[in-house]
Amino acid sequence: MPICTTCTRHVPYPYTVYESAYNLRLEQCPSCGAFADPYVEHDSLLLLIDLILLKRGVYRHLLYNRGSEPRRIGQQDDVSRKPPRWSLIVPIGGTLTALDAFIRWSHLNPQQALAVSPWSTGTIVNFSRTFIGCFAETLAFHVGVIAACYAVLKFLSVVKNSGDHNSDIRNEFRFALIPLALFYSSVTKLFLLFLLTIWKPSTSVIPVSSNTPLYMMLLDDDKLDKEWIVRNVLGGMSAGFGLRVVLDCHPVFTMMIIVFGWLAKTVVAGLISAWVGGTSLSGEQWLAYSIP
User: Fold this and answer.
1) Burial class (CB in 10 A: 0-12, 13-18, 19+), 242
2) Mean pLDDT, rounded, of the chain
3) Residues 262-283: what's their mean pLDDT?
4) What digits encode the pLDDT tens for the residues 152-177?
5) What does the DSSP assignment read for 34-68?
6) Which of 21, 52, 165, 204 is deepest in the core (most CB within 10 A)?
């Protein structure tokens, strides 16, 4: 059943359709009085921008309301149909993993794209290894997060008081929502990493004097790895944000879940780093880039 993107309470329908798909009216939430899902009228670009900005409403729209049947005037209503969540994981995950592989390959081979043809055998082999490595790390991270979510939900169900009732978000929980939430939350990280791949940091040396502020010295490219911070710090924060939308629990639990997923990804990264890198130096670079 769809939910209100503002108060997360159940609503019968997100919108009503009259005669044609383009003649619709947004439903009003009976609990809070706001529109149940204003993102129904938004195009894909606005959804992408709100995903990058980590807005909670767009997560609720994509995870719970996307594909829900509207109220159809003059037709029999069908409230039992659910959005095909599992069918979305493969195309969304494959696209984002391929983008992550390109970003990682550009980081490990900063000069190869300029000196060697992108269609040469060596380039294709290196990129294929990078893609397989990204796929293995992503799979390990998702499996670790799902296992940790299962343990946390079991723990919360045990310690819950007998008089407490689950929220509508918790009642609508499905394990298929976890990988979708993780993929959606990775859009912010991958967007910034893609920008860093296109626009490399400046290589010019800025003279440092005694009057240079400390924060300027800490922001120097030689001392601050922006890609590592975006991938791990910002990526972990956005993943925790996405899990909070799905699990509806305290941030401490989502932090523990993300840390467990990191541990699983780190183990896999250590096993495949030498093979993906091809050389010991490239393997060490892959491992340093992967481990939080």
Assistant:
1) buried
2) 82
3) 80
4) 999 988 887 655 666 778 888 889 99
5) SBS-GGGG--HHHHHHHHHTT-HHHHHIIIIITTP
6) 52
